[in-house]
Amino acid sequence: MRAFSYTRAASVAEALSAIAGAPQAKFLGGGTNLVDLMKMGVEHPPQLIDITRLPLAAIEERPEGVRLGATALNRDVASHPAIRARYTVLAEAILSGASPQLRNMATNGGNLLQRTRCYYFYDPTYAECNKRMPGSGCAAIKGYNRIHAILGASEDCIATHPSDMAVALTALDAVIQVQGPGASRSIPIHEFYRLPGATPQMDTNLRHGELITAIDLPAAASDPAATVRSHYLKVRDRNSFAFALVSVAAVMETEGGVIRRARIALGGVAHKPWRVAEAEQALAGKKADAEAFRSAADILVRGAKTYRHNTFKVELARRSVVRALTTVATTA
Amino acid sequence: MASEKAAEVSAGDITRREFHTEVAGIAALSMAAEVAGAAPAGFVPGIPVALTINGQEHKLELDPRVTLLDLLRERLHLTGSKKGCDHGQCGACTVIVNGRRVKSCLMLAVTLEGDKVTTIEGLASGERLHRMQEAFLSFDAFQCGYCTPGQICSAVAALDEARAGVPSAVTPRLASNEPIQLTEDEIRERMAGNICRCGAYPNIVAAVRYVAESPRKA
Prior knowledge:
The complex is a heterodimer of chains A (332) and B (218). Chain A is of the alpha+beta class.
């Protein structure tokens, strides 16, 4: 690991001022991804600003929803009674990721900012990776690309985002609260992540010097009287402690077997959690049955482009959508 | 432990542990020599950090690159915690920080100011083993033993998590916040962060389940 200097921030103002004049510096949360990437030689920040002692670890129930502090631990979010009861999809997504030890370390903000698990990104002995070294090429496109994107990729990058939590947050229309040097801003999660395009080195629209302070969950139901059910389905090579090949976060409001509103986000298929408004509109007002679910699934994977080893993901994604929605519809 | 002793004796005049300590000492000396002249590129001054390990307070100055695992093993010679993958995947380095099990290989030691660390060396009370250690012996819950300290630390904290109501991916009716029933499925899922390459899993599950189900002694 390359040498770096270490600063422990005692306040948000201190953290922001420490990073303001240091263009290569990074904030350190739980470190479960960043420290590993530093060991691998993928990341080499000259300075780390430790934000784990900032007073941002609260999980607050508010009239309009729930506010998750940026440095609250993943374990604590998944254990919170309000999250388990009203945002089940989020608790399930977090619990399906990593291992208990890692969930005891990982922060909410850090989970959002974890980097891709593309083999060619994670291992600097591969010369080509536009995300790691812009302009060097993409080894994955011509290499082993079983885990790679089928939607929204570019000729420069076919990496996927590895977070389960972010997929659930996308289906829940979460809003990321950010504090910058001058001002704070709110970024809806669908505007937070980027598609790779010609600049795959940028995972998100967060600017350097900005700090995630919280993640806001809007009210679970659009109508206080409505029943909302949700589920996270993760498909992977082994049953625990593995990244998703495909995952589905499904949130559905029904009334008398008829869908009022459905929200569906796919993980493991793109550079960001994948949501298609048209697929959700197609479900509104329909009977909650397999036929409706299949047509929504078809719309979700429309335009899929596959590579040599990941063709299977298109049908896997379709079937996973149907299964996740069926589970939501049949859960008492 | 018997297996540890055997390994030390079989190495002849110099024990395995002494050999590692010597090598680390030589490396430290050569680094110190470099530091004595002009500070080489990449030199980072030590950061002061005070933390408690197994009830004992330590005041240290550390290079920020030092992980908790390396601090324990290389500097404090608490070699019970093991380095398997050094990437947070195998669980051999599992220790308990402020009551929570973590992977010490991914934790920078300078971040632990004021924290309380418990390692495998801190579980027994004198000669009296922790119940989980006893159960691992009784149920023959290991083969080579390399992952065992991590397995035991993980299992001890896993039972605390279950008692505190922390759910897992296999907890039924997640939304209902019912107390956790530690079934075999639950134990397997909760221990998924600890790999045993010898495959002693059935006996590990049996040992953990025994401790979970037997009433606690005072």
